[in-house]
């Protein structure tokens, strides 16, 4: 009985080798700046409430709260990149 010809499978190109990249460590200044922004934002808001709006910047008025929260949020956003 005759044998059928075997089909050749097309050769696949070799998959590129992936090197396991180790995430880089953060610079030395990263952690102090991150915590510093969070604390500075908190102190900004506390100062605004304790002085009844006279400090930290009287011209900002109630926007001092937004400045304080903005500083704190920048610190919290930095935590997403902390390694």
Description:
The structure is a single chain. The chain has two helices and no strands. By secondary structure, the chain is mostly helical. It is rod-shaped, with a radius of gyration of 29 Å.
Concise synopsis of the structure shown:
With 83 residues, this protein is mostly helical. Helix content is 45%, strand content 0%.
Task: Report the radius of gyration as a whole number of Å.
Answer: 29 Å
Distance between the termini: 68 Å
Tell me the number of helical segments per DSSP (H or I, 4 or more residues long): 2
Oligomeric form: single chain
| Biggest β-sheet description | none
Query: Tally of extended strands?
Result: 0
Helical residue percent band: 40-55%
Structural class: mainly alpha
Shape: rod-shaped
Region (Disordered): 1-22
Pfam family, one: CrgA
Subcellular location: Cell membrane
Keywords: Cell cycle, Cell division, Cell membrane, Membrane, Transmembrane, Transmembrane helix
């Amino acid at each position: 009985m005759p044998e059928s010809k075997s089909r050749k499978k097309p050769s696949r190109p070799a998959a590129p080798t992936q090197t396991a990249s180790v995430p880089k460590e953060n610079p030395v200044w990263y952690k102090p700046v991150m915590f510093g922004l969070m604390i500075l934002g908190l102190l900004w808001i506390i100062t605004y409430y304790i002085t009844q709006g006279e400090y930290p910047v009287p011209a900002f008025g109630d926007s001092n709260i937004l400045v304080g929260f903005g500083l704190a949020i920048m610190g919290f956003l930095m935590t997403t990149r902390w390694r």
